[in-house]
Structure formats: C-alpha cells, structure tokens
Amino acid sequence: MPDEINQASVRRFETRILANHPLTPTIYDLRVEHPHPDFTPGQFVNIYLNRGDWLLPRPISVADSGGDWIRLIYAVVGKGTERLSALQPGDKIDVTTILGHGFSIDSASTVIAVGGGVGVPPVYAAAKKAASAGKKVVAIMGFRSDPILLNELAASIGAENVRCAIEDGKAVPALRTAFPEIQLETGTVLTILKQLPVPKEGKALIVSCGPGPMMKAIQAFAPPDRFDLQFSLEERMGCGFGCCAGCVADIRDRASGAISRMGVCSKGPVFAGETVVFNA
Fold first, then answer.
1. Would the N or C end of the chain have less CB density within 10 A of its end CB?
2. In CATH terms, is domain 110-275 a member of 3.40.50.80?
C-alpha cells in the first residue's frame, strides 16, 4: 500500500496567476507560479480562492511544469471553478505543495495512456514522461465532443501514436478537418483499446484517469496476464491530505481480498487498477 502523505510537509502559499484561458467552453488552462514545480504525473495541488464564502479547496491535477510554474487544466463545474475561470494574469490565489501519489511508469516498457474528459491532463503528462524516457507509448483520449491537448500530445509522442474517441458522432467530420494527423473515430476509448494488439510477451501498462464507468470497463476488459493497470481516481476532496476522510474509495487487498476504505488524497489518487472496487 502507498504511504500516507506527511501532513507536516504540506504547505499553502500565495502565488500569482500567469495565464488562465479557455480550451473549450467549459475547460480552462491555468498556469501559476510555484516554487517547487517538480511533479509525478497523477499528482495534484489544492487551489484556494481566498474568499470567506468558499473555504474548501479545489484539487486539480498537474498537467505540466517549468522552472517556476505549474500548469493546471480544470473544468468549470460549480461556483468555485466559475470564479476561478474569471481570474486574470496577475491575480493572486493560494496553492499547496504538490500532493498525492502519481503514476509509476519507470519499470514499464510499453505504456498505454487512456484518458476521458477532464481526466485527460494527468494521462497526457504520463504519456509525455513515458515518451521522453524512450518507452513505447500509445495515447487514447476520449471526449463527448470537444477534445483538448491533441496537438500537444502529437508533438510529444508522435501523431501516429495518438488515437481519439468522440462520443458525439456528428462532431467527428469537423474534428477530422481540425486535427488531420490524429486518428479520430466515433465511440469510446474502449472501442479503440479493443483494437490494439494484446502483448504476446510481457505486459503493457495501462494508466488511466476519467469517469468511473470508463475505468471499470477497462478493468473488465484487460487480461491481467497481459496488462498492468494504474487508475487515478477523481473524488471530491475536503482537505486534500488525509485529515477529513471526505474522499474515500473501496480498495481490495491483493493478498486477502479484504476491502478497505482508503483516502483518495492521502493513499492515491493513483491506485493499482485491479484493486479498485467500482460500486456503480
């Protein structure tokens, strides 16, 4: 089992927004200054809006980083993220140190990165890291209609290694014109995953983040003797570092089969995919 986050090491500090603009009507691309930008794909930070009527933070996964900044891609889903989307470069917000346990890809030779919707950014980061380490990478991204990060993925891992599933078939013709180098098709990520050859020797690693039903379908599909699974879970969080027990998931112990409730923020958000119990 992963270690608990050391709560004493968590820091919150004021920082400055460098950029904050829409990628789609509901998904925004935020860059903020950060003194410790190194991260493992799958990790996250908490964002505080410095408003007395919004005390709880917004956890957002880190998509990229540079010398003194981190990149966060988020969906506008409520009043808090709506307010965040209205902030401008130069505005101040509070962020934490980088939190959670990310994807472990060092021992894999082949990585299949599967993301759905706003779960794409941490998987995008994992695909980039795997490609930079010389691993074989295939990225499968799924969206209802408005894709994000496809061109950046193509530039990082090669367009021939990027596949995209669009649920709204009516959007596909226009998207094929907009992204001529990307293989797009109507369906879900599982539609594409089933088309890939199953490894004949060894195992491929599937790293995934997105809706629970998507990852549950991947779990049911992937033969355990040919695929290792790592899932990054998306849960509402109260504190972000294991104090409040507000973001728990059912995780099955490999040896005993016993199911325990574990904090997604403190033990995850990345778990071995075969141990995650999906209740819906």
1. C
2. yes
Query: Euclidean distance between the first and final Cα of the chain, in Å?
Result: 24
Using DSSP, how many helices (H) and how many strands (E) does the chain show?
7, 15
Q: Count Cβ neighbours within 10 Å for each residue of 149-188 and write b for 16 or more, e otherwise.
A: bbeebbebbeeebbbbbbbeeebbeebeeebeebebeeeb
Threshold 0.85, pTM exceeds:
yes
DSSP 128: H
> pLDDT tens across 23-63, in order?
999 999 999 999 999 999 999 999 998 665 566 788 999 99
Distance CA 243, CA 149 (A): 34
Contacts of 200 (CB under 8 A, 6+ apart): none
Fold for the domain defined by 7-96: Elongation Factor Tu (Ef-tu); domain 3 (2.40.30)
